[in-house]
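Service request form, structural biology core

Requester: graduate student, group of Dr. S.
Request type: structure prediction, single chain
Budget code: on file
Notes: please return the result as structure tokens.

Sequence provided:
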Amino acid sequence: MNETNVLEVLNVSKKAGARTLVDHVSFSIQAGDVCGFVGPNGAGKTTLIRMMTGLIKPGGGSIRIDGTDVGRERVKALSRVGAIVESPIFFPYMSGRDNLLNLARLHPNVPGTERKARVEEALSIVGLSERGSDKVKTYSLGMKQRLGIAQALLGDPRLIILDEPANGLDPMGIRELRQLIQRLNQERGITFLVSSHLLDELQRICSRFVIIKEGKLVWEGTSREWQEAAGAKGIEEHFVEMMTS
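Core staff response, request fulfilled:
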């Protein structure tokens, strides 16, 4: 393993019956990256993310986090990972604070003596301290997404994986999410993998991109390399060309 790699996806495949969902995909993400994970609907992004987070097993290949194989040592590999896969789920009639306290009790990286402090710190980081006592059912979608990131922060992660975190957010919510990701990356050194269809937003925050199509890797590189490859037509048009060629 390259010691700077936080995440390594190594020749990973997955089938559902006769259908190939992910086809021998390999890529890596280095410490400090904000990596945009891009592809059309049905490309295999969520399937890969579910394998990265130990929710399903690869049919072939392996996934390593900080050098630890997720399939062989799941608890150790995921102990420094925070994730929102699809939409964050909370108990609507409990407060944001109590939801986080319940989740902290289940986290192997949160000692009992530190639960309350970790929860208060996470609420503060995502800007929800003043609303922490309110029931989650009163939260806007953007606030629920920020609460999801607070949950992801409880275990002091090196890597946070976000699957379509901007879905349904209004422009203000998208801006708040972008600024939060940038701040956590710059101030805390957290590495991010962010799946999204919002290429303009990803271009603002990502240092690296991984692009898949029909379960296969079609391109990976830095943000600057993608801009250079796209040239005057821009990354959106270049992306469409990659997906339709």
